[in-house]
Amino acid sequence: MARQSISLTRPNDEWLKAQVVSEEYSSKSELVNDLIRQARKAQAHVDWIRAKLDKSESSGFTNETKEQILNQSKSLLNG
What gap in Å lies between CA 24 and CA 42, rounded to an integer? Predict the structure, then answer.
């Protein structure tokens, strides 16, 4: 595992220490790694949504009404 040295603001350092003291995490390193994992997962979700939006935007527009789109969606879901 790579070793890093980081500087933290006092409030962030105190928050990290409090998480370790409460035994939520066994060390600051474990907590920082968990926070990074959560951020990476969130970014992957944002990237997925962005890709879906890009695909939708590039597929063009429709002249159908909201009701027509809703009915089509319901019929597709119901088989």
Answer: 21
Q: Do residues 14 and 31 make contact, with C-beta atoms less than 8 angstroms apart?
A: no
**45 within a domain of the structure (yes/no):** yes
Q: Is residue 3 part of a domain?
A: no
Taking the whole predicted model, whether its pTM rises above 0.90 is answered as no
d(CA 17, CA 14): 5
Range of the domain at 66: 10-78
> What residues contact residue 30 under an 8 Å CB cut-off, 6+ apart?
none
Domain count, the chain: 1
Residue at 1 is within a domain: no
pLDDT tens, residue by residue, 27-66: 999 999 999 999 999 999 999 999 999 998 898 888 899 9
